[in-house]
Task: structure prediction
Amino acid sequence: MFSIFRSRHPGTALINGEPVLVDPKETLLQAALRQGIDFPHSCRVGGCASCKCKLVSGRVRELTDSGYILTDEELDAGYILACQSVPKGDVHIEVDLSQQRARQQVAGKIIAQEPLTHDITRLVVQLEEGLAYKAGQYADLTLDCLPEAPRSFSFASPVQADAKVSFFVRRVPGGQFTGRVCGESLIGQGITVDGPLGDFTLRPGAAPLLLVAGGSGLAPLLAILQDALGHGVARPVTLLFGAREERDLYAIEAIQELAKQWPAPFRFIPVLSEAGPDSSWHGAKGLVTAQIPALLEPGAHAYLCGPPGMIDSAEALLREAGVAREHIHADRFTNRSQGPASTRHPVIEHQQEN
Result:
């Protein structure tokens, strides 16, 4: 008798030539980590692109549309997100493991917690040893008192000779980690910094820079600017900083000091989206992305950091204005408590052949 029930057997994924068994419905990332491969990854929900890899041959079912985070060139070359790709039979993939080799876990102690706004705290950590990272990258932080709750945050300053690192932590409603950092004193407590991760770093060039930050997305952009100033970068800068209300603005003095020292034109425009009619605010109002068309300089390269909605809107405006995809760099902040990204995006098919 014909049966609609078919047994499913593990497939094989060749990862840089090493065979890995992949169980039915298992993603490439899950299979690789289960079998001991130190595969680059972070968010696991398709929001950071840390696990991008090249599909050399075979077919996969993608749980999310990777087109919003991978470039057109990467998609054309067959790149996929391992955390969102379920093989349909045997596949062959290639992945750059150099980032993982550079990754370290360094212990440290919290030496400062500075409230920047009503819901953002600057966390300063004294590491036991220096950690080599590039401005714009991020790390996974694990509090000793919350060993099962690592969270990802961008470095808010470039590498310091004294091995101090800082992060901007925004309180997430119900968040264990952010609730501790923003709600109670952790001075002297232990923390582990695991990184560096990500490739949201300043590319070489002379083109004008358009930087767009939303909320705590200001952290990596500040680090990039401070590092660039220290290395003599003299590219024109336009920095847009989006917040809801005036009380949500922070680091204004640090930005103004950067602008004074910057050896080229530097425009800083804070934008409030919820400034009421009775507000004393006389600056720009509305969505921060609405400022882009009027302020975009010819040939500018863009760096965007903040919530996915802001970045999607900014990317659309930049592409419409003729900015090439390879000159738009983005770091989308995701919230792990939101659940897997597969609940928010359609399932699609991806195939690559030799």
Remarks:
- The radius of gyration is 21 Å.
